[in-house]
Structures are given as C-alpha cells and as structure tokens.
Protein 1
Amino acid sequence: MAGAVSEARRRDVINALRRGTVPQTGLDLLAVGLDRFGTAMDDDLATVARGGAAFHAVRGEYGSGKTFFARWLAERAKRKGLATSEIQISETETPLHRLETVYRRLTERLSTATHQPSALRAVVDSWLYTLEEHVLDAGEVTEDHEEAFAAAVDTLAEQRLADVARTTPAFASALRGYRRALADGDTGTAEALIAWLGGQKSVAASARRVAGVRGDLDHFGALGFLQGLLTVLRDCGHPGLLLVLDETETLQRVRGDVREKGLNALRQLIDEIDAGRFPGLFLVLTGTPAFFDGQQGVQRLPPLAQRLATDFSTDARFDSPRAVQLRLPGFDLERLGELGRTVRDLYAGTARHPERVRAVVDDAYLAVLAEALTGELGGKVGIAPRLFLRKLVADVLDRVDDFADFDPRRDYPVTVTDAELTDVERNAVAGGSVGSAGSGGSTGDAGTADEIDLELS
C-alpha cells in the first residue's frame, strides 16, 4: 500500500503526526487492525447510498480507537460521496436530550469531500443549482423567462420536499425564502435564512418574515429538519449522511432526569431510523463499556438496552463486524510497534535519506521505543499512540534523516514531560478516571478533540 501513496498524502499525514494531531486525511494509511471492519462498513455505506439506513454503536476504553474508527469511517463515506458530521456529546455544549442543539452542531460540523465545515450553504446552493438544471433539461422554460423559470424551480422544490413539508413545512418555506433572497440580491437575508436552516438561534425576525417562518428550531422540529437535510443532500448528489455522536458516555455524569431524557432521545432516534424515516442516514455512536453495560448508562433505559444488546461472551476474535455494537480491543505493544513500522515506511517515502531511515529506525528499535515510552506513561499503552507517533516523527525520524551521525539508541533518551500531555493523558497517567478531564467542558473546539487522542485500533 505504501508504494501507491502520493507524496502529498504522505506529507500531510507526517506533518500532522509531527504536531501530535489527527491527520485530516489519509487515516486509511494508519488504520492498523481495522481491516476486519472494512467489508461490513462498506456494505453499510452501500445500503445507505441506495436509500437505506444503518446504525452501529462503537464501544471501547480510552485508547482503543473509537474516535479514530469514526474518522476512518468518515473518510470511506466521503469517498463514496456521502456527507459527514462528527459531534462530541457534552453535558454543557451539546446535551443529547436537546435534539435542536444536536442538529445545530450537525450542521456546524457538516462536511463533504470538497467542502470543509460548515458545508451547509454549499450543499443548499448545490441543491438549488441541481433543481435549475433539471428545469432547464425539461425544456419547458428558459432562464430568459425569469418569472416562469423561478416558478418552475419552486414547483420542483415543492415536489422534492413534499414528504418533509407534510411534517416540517418550515424547512421547505425557509428554502424558498433563501432562493428568493438570492434572486433579489438580498445577501443579508439569504445568510440569515441559511443560519436558521442550520438551527442557529436569534435569527433576525425580518429575515424570518421573508420566508414566512417563526421562532427558533425546537426539540420536536429537529428530526424534521434532519429529514429535510437528507432530502437536500440526496438531490444534490450526496446519497447520504454519516452522523457520528462521539463521547456519549458523558451522559453518565449528568443529573438523573437529564440522563434519562438523553437516553430516551437516543432511543427515539434509533427507532426513527428503524422505521425508515431517515433514508440515507448512517448513525454511529461511541462510548465506553461502562456506558453500554452500567446502570448509569444504557441499562438505565431497558428499551434502549434491548436495541443495543450484543453478545460479547465469545472470544473477541469472533466478534461480528455486522453487529449492532462493535467492540474495539485495547491497544497493546504489538499494535504500537506495527503502527510505528507503518509510519516509518510512510516517512521513508518522503525522506532525503530513505535507506538510512529504514536502517537506523529498524523494527527492533521501534519495539524498544514503544516499550520505553509506555514505561514513561506508567505502562498505560492506551494513552501512548499520539505521543509515540509525535516523538517517533519529530524526535527520531527527522533527526535520523537530517544528521548522519545521529543514533537514537545512543543519543535519544526517551522522556515525557508534563507539558507534553493533554489533560486526559495526564489524568490517565495519574491513575484517574480516563475521560473525566476535559470531556465535560466545551467540545465545540475541534482542535481540542484532535489533540486529546490519536486513538488507533
């Protein structure tokens, strides 16, 4: 695989690892141990692209690879034309029981293969352009007849949104208002209506009056807006949406009544998927085993526990990749060494002295480095991948490539300073509850999520 990788992709991945962050692309190059999920996930993506729906719950302790799995899957989804959105569930920023907030975060993090977050306006513009092309292809009107052309586009939009309009007419009304504002050159109103379609609060009343809509999006309208968004995505060439709800275990730390509301919202969403309300939706949620098995999590709501029930009594080698819950095994030294070999080979593809890199940083040294770093982290292999890769690239591979007389066995004593660790890593080294630091605060900062873990399964 390494031989077919372009130099640009190699550099993007290596540069991100040098900074200690998750690469934005090229995660398939680092997907150690995920091959067993590939076929099943591709089947699910194909089902979604045909107008079906899919759902999985990914379980694992910190360091097992949940976030990495979600982003690896997102890359596969984008290659098949799907849009994606990853949301960190948080008791303060994105509480699961407030579906209007979940929808707002979804649109803020919406991305496609060609557009970074938020891709909502680009998607809506593409949808309108597609409708106009269909009207022109029909040959009944031309762009020269502006009024007739606009009416024909509106009629086609109504036909495409008929199912949504029956339950959430405001979504269709806002799209009509947005198109009229664009046609009139009223960019301020158009931007306000896009914000309203994205679930943003406090949109100017004057803009809402143009579209004939009132108030802000509420909990009950959120699922209708999601249905409308899926319709728009499908009509403009994106056959579905991969929605990741990350860190759902934060529900365990909220007040009892709020927790039950959040669990019930999750049950409702899963039931709606099963009922066929969301064609084109692939929902993935991640959480710790304690969330799925403990009395402060899923087990607190028996109907939800029944929907997520998966038998893990057999050896993990025989886990089905098609099960509702997918179990990610913990990271170990063997996988850490395999990951190191993969990154070394990627690095060598862009190095000035590739032969020296491969000779000095051989497999034996990578095993020594993995063991030494894990020892510095108190034997906690699960928190080692991010720091291991950063040190491997920045402290070892770069120096071997730059200096002919640098020998990492002799010249590089492995040390870890407190400043190098994230809050979660520091807490884990200290023997605290992994995930309790940093998870409950703002998760709207994507950079924080990138720095907290480079989880690799």
Protein 2
Amino acid sequence: MEKFNYVVVGSGPSVYRFLLGMKDSKKKILVVEKKRFGGICPNEGCEPKIFLEGAVRAVLTSRKLEGKGIETPGKLNWQRLIQYKKEVFAPFPKSTQQMYEGLGAQTLTGTASFIDSHHISVESGVIEADNFVIATGRTPRQLSFPGQEYTLTSTDIFDLEDLPKRIAIIGSGYVGMEIATLLAAAGSDVTIIQHSDRPLRSFYSQHVQQLVNEMKNSLGIEFKFNTSVKAITKKESGYQLETTTGDKSNFDTVVNASGRVPNLGSLNLSAAGVEATKDGIKTNGFLQSSSENIYALGDVLSKKVPGLTPTAQFEGDYLSALFTEKETKPIQYPVIGTVAFTFPQVAQAGINIDEARNNEKYVIKDIDITAGDFFYQGTADNARLTIVYDKKTGRLKGASEISQTAVDDINNLIPVMSLDVQPDDWKKKMLMAFPGLAYKIRNLV
C-alpha cells in the first residue's frame, strides 16, 4: 500500500493552483480523478462556453449593425462550431494530467471512497495519506418528475452537433440563460421554464429584467415563470413536456439547467468523519473539515461566496500557502466579480444593488452609458451601469452593468473597490486608454 503526504480527490482549476503552490514543497502528492483531468470548467463548463460565446457574440453584434455599415450579418453554422470546439478541447484532459505530473504530482484515474480518515479505496487498491484534499466540484441536480431521464445537461449540449429546432430549458441560472443565448442565436426556438418569478437571482433585478426583455425581443426566447415541470413523455417525434400550469408542449430536446449539487456521492464521507450538508462540505476558516486532516476546495465547499472558478483557484492558492507555512490566517476572500455571458452580458461586483437600495448607508447612481459611447450607439444598445457608494466615505462599494462588454467594464472597477481608495485618488493615478469605455466612466465614478 503506497502512502502520500497529500491525496487530492478531483482535478479542477482549484487543484491546478494548489499544485502550483506546492511545487517546491518536496511533498509526495497524488491526484485522483474519476473522469477527465481538469474538471468541469475546462472540459464541459466555462471554457467551452466562452469558446462558443465568442462566435455567438460576433454574430449577434453584426446583426445589431445591419443597415449601419454591415450589409450581411453573420450566420452561425452550429454543427461546424461544435465540431471545431471538440477539436480544440479534445487534448485538454491528457495535457492537464501531464501538466499536473510536471508540477510534481502523481496522477491516477479512479473512483475514490473513504475507508477512514487516512485511507481511500480506488479500483487499483487502497491508498494511505497523511492529509486529503477534496475537490470534486458539483454535478447536475437530479430532477424528480416522471421522464426526467430524457433531459440533457449542459455537457450534452456542448457536444450536440445537430441543432434542435424546439428546445426547452428547465432553469434560468447562469447555465440556463447562457445556453439559451447560444442556441437561440444559432436558430433554435427556445423556451425557458423557471419555477420562480425571475432568472439570475443573485444579480441586480432591474438589469435582469432588462436582459429578459432583450432576450425576448432580439432572440425570440419565451420565458415561463412561476412554472414547474410535472412530467416529460417521449413521443414518436421528440418529447411532450407538461407543466404545473396545465400546459402541454412538444420539444425536440429538453435541457436540465436547474442547478448543480455537491459531488459527494461516491466519497463515503461518514467513514472519514467529514460533515456535509446539501450545500457541500462544512469547513472552518482554514478550509479544514470536521476531520482535522481532510480539507476541501472549490465548488464542493459549503460557502457564502459565489461558487466560481476564480474563487476555487483562490482557495487552491490559499491552501497551498497554508500547507507551506506562507499563510497562517483564515482565508479572506477579495472583491469578487461575476458575469452571465448572455447577450447583452450582465456583470457585477461588490455589494448587491438590490440590498444596497434598502440600506441608508449607501448612495446609488444609475448611469446611461449608451450616451456618448459610439460603440453602444452603433449597436443601439441600451447599456446601463449602476454603482453604489458609501454615503459617509464616498468610496465605491458595488457595481452592476448590463451591456455587450459588461464583464470588462466591471473588471475595471474591481480595483477601485478592492483597494478601497477614494475615486479621486484613482483618477489621479490611472488614465485608461481612450476612447474605451473605462476612460469615459472614470468621471462618472
């Protein structure tokens, strides 16, 4: 039986950052991966999503400019786009595994299950470790109605070469809204079914409503809010979807985008004394579980901050620093930016705008950034930026934007929030490139 200093279960982006920080530690490390090295993000999540989004955004922008200098707007060839995506991403699992080995770790493909707090079993036998790091991420939520087995996941959609004509998407979080944008731009008739009254609940409500209107008007997407699915029935051609409102509609494809849950199924955590809830593994400020030699990283954690690739990587950096004694304090998360890659994009950072409106500590400013910016005027974009100040200090505490470049604009404001500087000081020390929007809004914030 081989023994290691650290065994990492999972191989996503948090693990890459962890191994990078442990590279010169001279510790014996093993990474065990059940499926594909690299995890969800680069293989079937955010990286292939942004690859597809790049083509979609170019096409949709060209449609906005038709008659304003663009005579023939772009048209997506979905089949070729997916084929090209497969070509680009096919080498990634193997190259990631090789990269991890280059950082000094051993790698193993297999399903890990705890025997006790110092031993796991995999198909090849029993492995012992002084410490374990769990980084198994999340997996699509299982639906509970009859016919749920007929649904596809985002992973399936990113490999689907035959574009469905009629598609229903259950859920309207990041995944549901982004997939809807991609498929509608390619030519599918898309219906989003959401059990509550709005999508993207963590984003600013006014910008989300504007996004919904834009997706309806520009992309023809239908939204059914306050609606749940009762059953899916397979038909001779496609599927019939029945909802709690009594509606029965036929679709070629149904996608489960109802969210993800912690991927804990095969780990047998109770044998190792690790406590977990439906939200994930419970840890203290040092990412340490209830079993003192077992830690957790990334989306498998139960945490208050957003479960995003950047937060997972930040945790990987932190844990390697803790293990190499470069860090001794509990983890402190920075200002975190987040974005939905819809069209237009919605992005935000800092305090939530809806929460700030109900707090007299803050001052809210709503800005029409279309006026004076010729990029947005050319595309007839209704771009909006909302910012939150601390009433007493004047410092920037939050921002939300809806526009075609919202992610870049919000990223420009994150340093102002994270460094906690007076906006006047920021203006004195930085001049952004003109006529980019970052320069133009410097006098607005």
Protein 3
Amino acid sequence: METPLNQAGQPAVFIPDSRPAWIRLGLALVIGSIGSVGMWSVVVVLPVVQAEFAASRGAISLAFTFAMLGFGLGGVAAGRLCDRHGIGLAIAAGIALLGLGYLGAGLAPNLATFVLLHLAIGAGSSATFGPLMAEASHWFERYRGLAVAVAASGNYLGGALWPPLLNWGTQQFGWRITHMMVALVCVLAMGAILLLLQRRLGRHHPLHHQGAPPPRIDLRLPVPTLTALLCMASVACCVAMAMPQVHIVAYCGDLGYGPARGAEMLSLMLGFGILSRIGSGMLADKIGGIPTLLLGSVAQGIALLLYLMFDGLGSLYLISALFGLFQGGIEPSYAIIVREAMPAQEAATRVGLVVLASVFGMSLGGWLSGLIFDATGSYAAAFLNGMAWNALNIAIMVLLWLRVRPRLVPA
C-alpha cells in the first residue's frame, strides 16, 4: 500500500527512521558544519586583529569569551523558538545573526565593536547546534542516538574545515574582507540549504515534535529537577574536558615540545572526537543515553589520569587521540537523555539549557586550570582538579542510572 501524499507531494504522515528522515539529517549536518564558523573564526584571526587594534592578548581574547556567551544564551533562545515555531524559524534567525555579526565585525571601527559583535556571532552559531540535535531526535526512534550524534558532529566537522579556509582568506584578502565573505557564505549557502530542509519538512507540519515518539524512560523526577541535574553534570564534565582542550598548546610549550605540537594534538582530539560522537550515538541506540554518557565520563577520567602519568611526546599524541575518542560523545548524550526522559515539545529548550551549562563549564575549567597553574607552577594539580570534577559527573550519572525505569504510560 502506498503512503498517501499531501499537497506538497510529501508523505502525509511522517515516519521516523525513514528515508526522508535521513535526508533531513544530511541537510542538518551541512547546516551545522557551516554555522559552526562562529566557534572557530576568532581563534584564527586573533593575532592579526590584535595587531591592527594594538590591543593586549587579554583584550582581544574577550571576543572569544563573548562568542561563547552568545553561543550559550543564544542556544536557550533558539531552543525556545524551535519548540514554539519549528526549526526553520530558529535557523533563519541564526543565519541573520551570523550575517549581520560577520558583516559588522568586518567593518568594526574599534576593538569594542569587534568584541560586542561576537555576541551575535556566537548566538547565530548556537541555532545550528542544540536545536538541530533536539530536532534530529524527533525524526528518529530506532536510530535516535546515531542521528543526534551526526547532528552534533557538524560542530567538529566545521572545526576541521573552517580554520584553514579562514587562515587562507586572511592571508590573501585580510581579515576584514574574510569576515564579509563569511557573512555572504553563511547567508547564501545556509539560506539555500534551509529552503531545501523546509521543503523536506513540509509546510503543513512545521512542529514535528507534535507527532514525535513519547519519552522512553521514567527517572521519577520532575522535569525542572532533572534539567538542573543534567546542567550540573554538564558543568562538571566540561570543567574536566577544558583542561586538555584549552591548555594542551601551552602545556606542550612548557614541556619544551613547542606550541605547534600542541596544536597538532588539539586537531587530533577534534578528529577523533567526530569518531567518538558517531560511535557513542550508535552505542546509545543499544544501551541508552545515560549508560553511554557514564561510560564516556569514566573513560574521560582515565584519559586525564594518563595525562598525569605520562608526558613524553609520543605518549601525549596517543593520549590526546584517546581523549578525543573518549569525550566526543559526551555532549550529544545529554540531548539523547533529554529526549528519552522529557516531553518532546520541551526538548530544544532543555537541550539549550544543558548546552549553556556546558559553555559555562568550559569557560570555568579553562580559567581554573590557568589559575591553578599560576599558583603551583605546574599543570599536575590542574589535571587532578579536572579528575575531581569528572568524578562529580560520574556520581550524578550513577544516581540517574539507578533511577531509570521503563515508561509504561506514554507522556
């Protein structure tokens, strides 16, 4: 029997895990890869912008801080917009913010303007991360974990593609022209892909969470309480995660290996992080989001311990690859847990809150590690600090794991 079609020539009833769902996911991955530029651009152009504005390293680094702040707060706002009006409007708002942010940054007359505009850049990028993970969870049931992981991988894929492109553009045309070119690419490319995605979504069903599968598990906790616990766990794991990610370049410099080696290790982390996200998503489809996150957190703690035990150059390359392989799947697991345990109509907002907590955790972890290094003259205590925060994350996940019950009555 053929599936009935609506006026747009699409299936009148959307089927999770179907071919249209995989096509949507592919489009979401492309949008996420392009939109993640806001996470990486300021890192690439930081030295040349600093030189033009004759600013200190601390002052120009505020642009990254503001981008992260915009990413965190924008994720909550975009998630709310997605829950109420659908993913299309949320991404359209993100495209507009990215276009205006990069155009304004390219024309910025002073450092203060450049820094402030990164609030818009970060907020624009956020619409292509948390909301896309939540929306992908509505399109799949059997392969939900894999789908969420693929949607989240756009962030890391963009991290592999954008920096060399931005560096080339800056060398060829200058950072100002490059920022304007990024604005143009974001508006035109993402706008075109959004139109394709909207066509695939269909005008008659803009809110797919209305027909999404119900929660699978019951943790016997009110939604606000569960959200608070997930946010606390997210802060804890990201404080631990920040130690290698933020300080690996400086750590290699202190050991005498040079910053270039540290940059290679960071790239290695991100590359293996993509594999980790896909693998963790497949694992979550087998055992669930909470056990998957728990395994990732335990493995991350082991990697931090290995950093503490070995500091040879070859060892650091190997441990960095392992760290990326262990931690890459942690962030998408939160989105999977949200959909397994919470109502679909709140998913994007709740995922946005957890992402905001993770941004705070990364910021706090990077700062604490630097503070501990200044106090002790070594990163050994900073690794121990990361392990302690990681233990808190493990404790929360064990608590939730012990409370899991299959949901018998649909929510």
Protein 4
Amino acid sequence: MRISATARRDAAGDLEGYLFVLTDMTAEREAARLKDEFTGLISHELRTPLSSILGYLELIADDEENPLSAEQMGYLATVERNAQRLLRLVGDLLFTAQVEAGKFSLDRRPVDLRQIVTSTGESLRPTAAAAGVTLSVFLPDGEIPVDGDPVRLGQACDNLVSNAVKFTKPGGRVAISAGIDDSGDEPVARLSVSDTGVGIPVEEMENLFSRFFRASTATANAVPGVGLGLTITKAIATAHGGTIRVASTPGEGTTFSLALPLRSDAQDRRRLATAS
C-alpha cells in the first residue's frame, strides 16, 4: 500500500486533522516485477547469439587463407560495430535488472580515482575529436583514494563523459575534473563532468535518473541512446555510498558531480592533519 497524508485546516488556519489516502500498489508492483524478469530473460537470450556473431566475425576477418577485399572488410567493420553496440545495450539491461533485483555486487579494492579519469579521457578522446568536441582532463598531483570497484567506477565515468560528448555540438567543450572536496562535514572524492551542450530543462530533472527516460533535448537533437546510462551511473554511485547531482542550463550546458567517500585510511590522515 502507498500512503499519503494531507493536513486539513479550518478557515483560521488551525489544524483540524489529517486526510489519509491508501492506494493498493499490488498490481503495479507485480507489473514491475514481470517487466524486470522479462528484461533479464531477453538480455540473457540476446547475449549468446551476439557473442557467437562477434566470434565468427573475428574468424572471417582473420582468415589469412581467404583474405577479404577492402570493401568487404568495411562491411564487416559495420556489422561488428553494430553488434558491439547491441552487446553493450544487453549488458546495460542486465545490469539494471540486477540492480532492481538487489543482486548488484561490487569487487571493492583500493582505487586512485585519477587513474579512472585518465583512462576514460584516453579512451573517449578519439570519440570527442570525431564529434568536433574538445575534451580536457584536470587532475591534482596527489592521489584521490577511494575504496571501490574500478570496473564499475570506470563505467560510471565513461557514461557521464560519453553523454557529455553526445549532447555537445561541434566546437563545444567537455571537461573532466576530480579531486578531494573539503567543503562539507566530511571530505569526499569528487568527480565532475561539465559540457557546453544543449542542457536539460528544469522540469525534467526529477526524471533524469529513471530507466529509459530521455530528455526532450535528446529527442529534439536526435541524440542516440535508450536512457539507461544515468540510471546505471546513479546505481553505481549509491552502491559505493556516494551521491550524484546535476546542474544544467538549457542551451548553455550541464555539469554532473559524483561524490564518493574517501578511503578510510585517507579520511583518518586528513582528520589528524586538520586536528594538528
């Protein structure tokens, strides 16, 4: 049951009581469960044939006894690119199904957030250059120590930067920065991705991290995607005990900021340094 309560007041503004409304959510929850099961089943069924397709593509391309022409290799490259795109989509669908089912786990270890950002910058710089977008990386000299899953953190960083590049028009800029933020009660590791892209309308912010949601600016500018990247990124941030926030101005750009707890030993060192 979903319960909502509203205060009732008289003409003088004095409290008379409360109005409680109970809504039966059984059917809605069951529909959501079936949708998650369907997503997981379809994802598993798609992954096997896609892996087979990619395997045979590699065999054909590497067959030295029967070499292909340049034109044929171009066709194979197109097939492989789209098969890889489908495989990434299947992986995203499986990931969201795991999150919804509460089966999402992390392989935690000591991580320097600078390495995550550096790797993302190196891998996505060619994509940004092809789109006519300048990609810049700003990092401190010292370590940014966190306790986390490097693969998942890399996935979150990749999602934010690839989104920024996609939503930025040629001639625009995307900046990745990371460091230790001491402005709050506890120091945190903060990763920020800013762009000069199309922005996000204020009224759509509350739905931004919902599965399959796509902002009107995405559809208006024909930006490709299915609306899973930010959902996954938020799930990764939450699983690490972190938070993600966004600030955007339509027509000017967007900034996503991911805050993660510092590694415990690093927090202790900073407390001692502050106390002394």
